[in-house]
């Protein structure tokens, strides 16, 4: 899930945007990552121009983090593109921090 946060006048506004691979089954974790990263970078690019007070996140569950995002190659990509990656409890209604 791609999450947006806007901080203005002492209040926080958050919005979750499911990325395309959450809407259908994808057999490849790498393909899902490619799709999510591409969407993250697109949102981040345009929002940095149109709404600079917004922050974009690529929120994932702890299970997905442990299974996929701990790989060195994935960590290098996240670092290169400065992806903000909160780990959220998908069974809880709380928004990413």
Describe this structure in words.
The chain has 97 residues and is an alpha+beta fold. The chain has one domain: Trna Endonuclease, Chain: A, domain 1. 40% of the residues lie in helices and 24% in strands. The chain has three helices and five strands. It has helices at 29-50, 62-69, 72-80; strands spanning 2-8, 11-17, 54-58, 60-61, 87-88. The strands form two sheets. It has a three-stranded antiparallel β-sheet with strand order 2-1-3. It starts with a strand and ends in a 9-residue tail after the last strand. The mean pLDDT is 81.
CATH class: Alpha Beta
Strand order of the largest sheet: 2-1-3
Percent range for β-strand residues: 15-25%
**Termini separation (Å)?**
13 Å
Structure classification: alpha+beta
Please state the overall shape, judged from the principal axes of the Cα atoms: globular
| Count, helices | 3
What is the residue-mean pLDDT, rounded to a whole number?
81
Radius of gyration: 14 Å
């Amino acid at each position: 899930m791609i999450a947006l946060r806007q901080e203005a006048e002492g209040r926080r506004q958050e919005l979750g945007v499911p990325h395309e691979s959450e809407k259908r089954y994808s057999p490849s974790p790498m393909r899902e990552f490619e799709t999510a990263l591409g969407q993250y970078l697109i949102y981040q690019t345009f929002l940095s121009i149109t709404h600079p007070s917004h922050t974009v996140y690529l929120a994932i569950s702890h299970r997905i983090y442990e299974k996929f995002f701990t790989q060195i190659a994935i960590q290098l990509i996240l670092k290169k593109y400065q992806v903000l990656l909160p780990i959220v409890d998908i069974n809880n209604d709380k928004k990413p921090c």
